[in-house]
């Protein structure tokens, strides 16, 4: 997983991260990630989706937890010689699917 350092997003690649932070400020994140597979073209796992309600503000908001049935990484591209996933799909019961374009999640 790339992008944990927003000033240098390609600086610290991770394979099979235990958490994925989406956007600035950790408003949306998936924690407790367990990977079923991690291949050259796709990765699949489960975890807990945490969404900050940002009420009254994001700094003082509360996190809501949702079980993630399926966490999918796909659409591999390359940064130099390093492959990375460019798409993240989060599927949770009773909620719409979240698909996110990533800056760089490396398959290894």
Keywords:
108 residues, mainly beta, 6-stranded antiparallel sheet, 6 strands, 56% strand, disordered N terminus
Distance between the termini: 9 Å
Helical/strand content category:
mainly beta
Number of beta strands: 6
Helix-residue proportion: under 10%
Overall pLDDT level: 80
Radius of gyration of CA atoms, rounded to a whole number: 14 Å
Strand order of the largest sheet: 1-2-3-4-5-6
Supply the number of structural domains: 1
Describe this protein's structure.
This protein is mainly beta and 108 residues long. The chain has no helices and six strands. It has one domain. It has a six-stranded antiparallel sheet with strand order 1-2-3-4-5-6, with no helix packed on it. A hairpin with a 5-residue loop joins strand 1 and strand 2.
Could you write a compact summary of the structure shown?
By secondary structure, the chain is mainly β. It has strands at 20-22, 28-38, 43-52, 63-79, 82-92, 98-105. It has one domain (20-105).
Give the topology, please.
Layout: E1 20-22, E2 28-38, E3 43-52, E4 63-79, E5 82-92, E6 98-105
Antiparallel strand pairs: 1-2, 2-3, 3-4, 4-5, 5-6
């Amino acid at each position: 997983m790339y992008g944990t350092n927003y000033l240098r997003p390609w600086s610290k690649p991770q394979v099979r991260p235990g958490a994925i932070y989406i956007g600035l400020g950790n408003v949306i994140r998936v924690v407790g990630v367990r990977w079923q597979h991690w291949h050259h073209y796709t990765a699949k796992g489960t975890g807990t989706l945490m969404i900050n309600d940002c009420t009254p503000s994001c700094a003082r908001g509360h996190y809501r937890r949702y079980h993630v049935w399926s966490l999918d990484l796909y659409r591999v591209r390359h940064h130099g010689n390093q492959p990375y996933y460019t798409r993240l799909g989060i599927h949770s019961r009773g909620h719409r699917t979240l698909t996110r374009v990533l800056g760089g999640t490396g398959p290894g």
